[in-house]
Every structure is written in C-alpha cells, then in structure tokens.
Design brief:
about 240 residues; alpha/beta; 2-enoyl-CoA Hydratase, Chain A, domain 1
C-alpha cells in the first residue's frame, strides 16, 4: 500500500520484518473506518505470509495516534450505532492473534484507540515525547477498542482501574514505571526496527510457541499453563 491516500502503509522487508505504518499524519493518525479496514487487510496478510517473522507497527507524522475519529460518530444515528458498526469488524483480534512477534514504536500522542492498539503488541517502545492515555470516560464512553482488557493484562486491575476511570494522560517515563510501556529510547524508529529485526532472527517455531505460552499464563491456572508450556515446547523443539 503505497498510495498517499491510503490510511496505512505495509512494507515487507528483506529480513522478514513487516512494517505497518499508520498514515493519516494530517489527522494525527486518528483511527477511522478506512484505517480499520486497511489494518485488518494488513494483519491478515502478515499472518498468512510465511516469509514474515516479525511485525513493526509505527506511524508517520508527529503523533502515533490521537485516538478514534469522533467525526464518524456524527454520521451514525447515535454513539452506540457508530460503535456497533466498529464492533462488527475490528482489527484488535487479528493483531492480538498474529503468530509473529510484534513491536510498536510510539511517539507524540498515543491516546484511546492508539494506546489500545499498542497494548496488543509484545514490545512497546516510546520516544521521550510520548503521551499515553485512555480518555474515553472523560467523553462519556467506555474504552471499548480493547482497553479494559489489554491494559489489565499489561499492568493488572489495581493499576489499570484508576488510569481508565480518571482518563489520565501520562508521559512516557511514567508509563514505563507503571508497566504500560516497555522502555523509552533515544531514537524510537531505529531502536524499534532493531528489536523487530532481532525477533525476526529467532527460530519462528520457538518465538511463536513462547508467545502462546506466555499469553496462556494470563487466563489459565498454573497446572493448565504448565501443560500448555510442555505441549508447546515439544512442538517447537527439534527432535535430537
């Protein structure tokens, strides 16, 4: 997707890293229905491509994403009707269930849907100017692009609840301290690309099995998680 009118760009590079770039810089990369459809197409293509071994999610312009395009709410009969349209087809599960490891490079605003998208990635790197938050409750809405689920999985319910209820916007360093982000780096584009390249260099079976085991740990009791770990390890480890 190279056309300047496209809401995202997808490039698959020689080392097996797929780079998905949000591309509505003049609109602060706010998430709209066109971006939704393009992201679903991109994530589906990445999942189905055996040559892709890692994904880097990034954005053009001054901000990663300032959230959802609220102007689209006005084109529906009500906020609930607009949300129903989005819920019928969202990219969150395609991103979360990608078999490949994922890295996101954040800068500027990563708010609402922008943060929710980032929370679904494995490694979340940020520039020092990054501001993150879920402002939906301040607007009379629930963070329903996965925020109530993904933030809890990242930092736990006790830490997630006040951030969501107060609609707080926090800086990158604070977000790292709270566990929302992985690290603040000097050059987020260079660092994120390097991490994605390293992940792409891992044996695919091992990388994918490790991610599945770690995610199973969130939803399973210890005995069930250990069983999943054993089964995945057997599949991912070559026979001697």
């Amino acid at each position: 997707m190279r056309d300047s009118d496209e809401p995202i760009r997808l490039e698959v590079e020689a080392d097996g890293v797929a780079v998905v770039s949000l591309h509505r810089p003049e609109k602060l990369n706010i998430y709209n229905l066109a971006m939704r459809d393009a992201l679903i197409e991109a994530f589906t293509a990445v999942a189905d491509d055996p040559e892709v071994r890692a994904l880097l999610l990034r954005a053009d312009g001054r901000h990663f994403s300032a959230g959802a395009d609220l102007s689209e709410f006005g084109s529906a009969g009500s906020v609930m009707a607009a949300r129903a349209i989005r819920w019928r087809r969202d990219p969150w599960i395609p991103l979360w269930t990608l078999p490949q490891p994922t890295v996101v490079a954040l800068h500027g605003y990563a708010l609402g849907a922008g943060l929710e998208m980032a929370l679904l990635c494995d490694v979340r790197l940020a520039a020092s100017d990054t501001k993150v938050g879920l402002p939906e409750t301040r607007l009379g809405m629930l963070p329903s692009a996965g925020g109530t689920q993904s933030l809890v999985r990242a930092i736990g319910p006790a830490a997630a609840l006040p951030l969501i209820l107060t609609a707080a916007t926090i800086d990158a360093q604070d977000a790292v301290r709270r566990g929302v982000l992985t690290a603040v780096v000097d050059d987020v584009e260079v660092e994120a690309r390097a991490v994605a390249s390293r992940l792409a260099g891992l044996p695919s079976a091992v990388a994918q099995a490790t991610r599945r085991a770690l995610r199973a740990a969130v939803d399973l009791p210890l005995a069930g998680g250990l069983d999943v770990e054993r089964r995945l390890a057997r599949r991912a480890t070559p026979n001697p």
